[in-house]
């Protein structure tokens, strides 16, 4: 009997590494990977470079392709070369037509955006989910199962309108074993870590000067390290920090999980790194209520989430 085919849809490097970890438990099947993609109109915009601020292009796509090449993954751009028996993805903001009739396992990638006007336009007027970014994660109802990080997240997605019976609290790769990050070679210790955002790149307002001053106030003279978001305009961000926090250290790349493990305190706006810090019991400051962050802290299962998700997929592959 021919092996069954699985399409794993990537996106950001975080999403891509998640898909790769899940694929390790699906070695009895043919696993193919693709960068994130949409339907014809969205793909045309991406090809024109108009989606470089998100996972459809730019740095996210470059990082994904580099990772897949490094790990000898078989790439099928847009899932066009095979007929698939199962699709695993980290985003349901776009459900391409060629997978709409396939069994889909949807995996939570990380934090979701606040529910603002665009969220309600999507929910009640059925506008495209992507206009509200990740605030509408899970609302497609196009999947068989939605794998989430914790019981707290399950409650939040149910409140948004996701079908409770479709949610599985499996834990999520990259967030389910934070103790592993404590063993690292990052050369700094006991500093204040400022994890910046790409809000401006996604057409949202941010007062970066105010954020930098908040970081300095919290640090009270302690060493400050800025880790820039990979989708930021680096030159602009570096110039701002050098102007308003000239004694700080700036990293444009590197493993932020190792930085969190070594830091004294994390400061950010609205980012998935909050959940890593919370799981590590690190002090943190953000735009979110402290108790909310503690509620959504991902379960720790020593890295078994990828296997849990793969086993769910096997149900739809093997019956």
Keyword list:
11 helices, alpha/beta, 11 strands, 319 residues, five-stranded parallel sheet, globular, six-stranded parallel sheet, Rossmann fold, 2 domains
CATH architecture of the largest domain: 3-Layer(aba) Sandwich
Kindly, what is the distance between the CA atoms of the first and last residues, rounded to a whole number of angstroms? 15 Å
- The CATH topology of the largest domain comes to Rossmann fold
Q: In which order are the strands of the major sheet placed?
A: 2-1-3-4-5-6
Question: Tally of extended strands?
Answer: 11
What's the CATH class label of the largest domain? Alpha Beta
What's the tally of helices? 11
Write down the overall geometry.
globular
User: How many domains make up the coordinates?
Assistant: 2
Q: What structural class is derived from the secondary structure elements?
A: alpha/beta
CATH superfamily label of the largest domain: Glycogen Phosphorylase B
Helix content: 25-40%
Low-confidence stretches: none
Order of helices and strands: EHEHHEEHEHEEHEHEHEHEHH
Largest sheet: 6 strands, parallel
Mean pLDDT over all positions? 95
- Radius of gyration (CA) equals 20 Å
